[in-house]
Write a structure and sequence with these properties.
Layout: H1 2-14, H2 20-31, H3 36-45, H4 49-89, H5 105-118, E1 123-124, E2 130-132, H6 133-136, E3 156-158, E4 163-165, H7 170-179, E5 184-193, E6 205-215, H8 220-235, E7 241-248, E8 251-260, E9 277-286, H9 288-293, E10 302-309, H10 310-318, H11 325-328, H12 331-334
Parallel strand pairs: 1-5
Antiparallel strand pairs: 2-4, 3-4, 5-6, 6-10, 7-8, 8-9, 9-10
Helix pairs in contact: 1-4, 2-4, 3-4, 5-10
This protein binds 3,4-dihydroxyphenylalanine.
The site of 3,4-dihydroxyphenylalanine (DAH) has 11 residues, from strand 9 and strand 10.
Length: about 350
């Protein structure tokens, strides 16, 4: 019997519960009505009288030790739980900051441009990235031998009939004219694809925003005023614009638009290559051939269109020197825009 008592004593002393439930289970197993100590007490009744004194003392020691140990453990566990509860309830503790992601600079600039034109009454239109020849070239007055139709510039998916990745968002002009009668006033953001070698200045994927306004009596002066408003909103109130004659198949007359360099204020620096001007977009009056191809009477309606690269605007706005940064998604680059929500 001494062995049994010592064994139980050792187990009581070594017991280290993790939770109150575990302790309670142990208490019942040892001290409960059907517990091990109770069983030993029963056994004690049957021992020889000359052993009673010694064994009685051993049993009493075991009982006291077990009761005290269990009480001490209960207090320890209770304190730990109260501690945890107190920690949760302490509202004065400093909070732990959850790191937030940031918007991509291309998304920031796209949204800003869309918002500027929304203030002029433009709504957003979108179109598919996989297009056919009609929407990207033919309906936009591209002659059959135009170099943009060449494999070197365009990613073709199928030939005859041609299925291709759109090379510009001007295709959304065509899709809009198919759906909608004038007056039309849309701004069309989207991703475009060109078969170009990737460098700091060119990429095979980039983003454009296209604008189209068609109504009765729309003039070149309206175009100029709208683009001046846009330039001042995006690059600052002191910004000037200039238009240089250019050529696009879908506009006549066509122009290239420059804004005064916002870094040197027009004096000339290395960003504007000493000219004081930065090229930002192409534009022009919608060619009557385009209106006719899309079922709009050029005798009654006129309109203007413009198109710009979002990467280019973002580069000028944020001073980003390498186009590839926009696509690599290095968080050290992206985090620099997290205050620009
Ligand atoms: N689609 C032209 C490009 O990708 C940009 C452009 C120029 C769009 C003139 C227009 C425009 O709507 O009128 O280079």
């Amino acid at each position: 019997m001494t062995n049994k008592i010592n064994d139980l004593l050792r187990r009581v002393e070594a017991f280290k519960p993790q939770a109150a439930a575990e302790l309670e289970e142990f208490r019942i197993k040892i001290l409960g009505k059907k517990g091990e100590l109770t069983a030993l007490m029963e056994e004690f009744k049957t021992v020889a009288p000359e052993l009673k004194r010694e064994l009685g003392q051993q049993l009493n020691r075991l009982k006291t030790t077990a009761t005290e140990r269990i009480n001490a453990l209960r207090e320890e566990l209770g304190n730990a739980a109260a501690d945890r509860a107190a920690r949760v309830e302490d509202m004065t503790r400093p909070g732990s900051a959850e790191p937030l992601g940031s918007r991509h600079p291309i998304s920031l600039v796209r949204r800003e441009i869309v918002e500027v034109f929304a203030r002029l009454g433009y709504t957003v239109a979108e179109g598919p990235e996989i297009e056919d020849d009609w929407h990207v070239f033919s309906a936009l007055n591209f002659p059959p031998e135009h170099p943009a139709r060449d494999m070197q510039d365009t990613f073709f998916i199928e030939k005859d009939p041609d299925i291709l990745l759109r090379t510009h968002t001007s295709s959304i002009q065509v899709r809009t004219m198919e759906r909608q009668k004038p007056p039309i006033r849309v701004i069309c953001p989207g991703r475009v694809f060109r078969n170009e070698a990737i460098s700091s200045r060119a990429h095979c994927i980039f983003h454009q925003i296209e604008g189209l306004y068609i109504d009765e009596g729309v003039s070149f002066a309206d175009l100029k005023q709208s683009l001046l408003y846009f330039a001042k909103e995006v690059f600052g109130g002191q910004t000037a614009i200039r238009m240089r004659p250019s050529y696009f198949p879908f506009t006549e007359p066509s122009a290239e638009v420059d804004v005064s360099c916002n870094l040197c204020g027009g004096k000339g620096c290395n960003v504007c290559k000493g000219t004081g001007w930065l090229e930002i977009m192409g534009c022009g009056m919608v060619d009557p051939n385009v209106l006719t191809a899309n079922g709009i009477d050029p005798q009654k309606y006129s309109g203007f269109a413009f198109g710009m690269g979002i990467e280019r605007i973002a580069m000028l706005k944020y001073g980003v020197k390498d186009l590839r940064l926009y696509f690599e998604n290095d968080v050290r680059f992206l985090r620099q825009f997290d205050s620009a929500l």
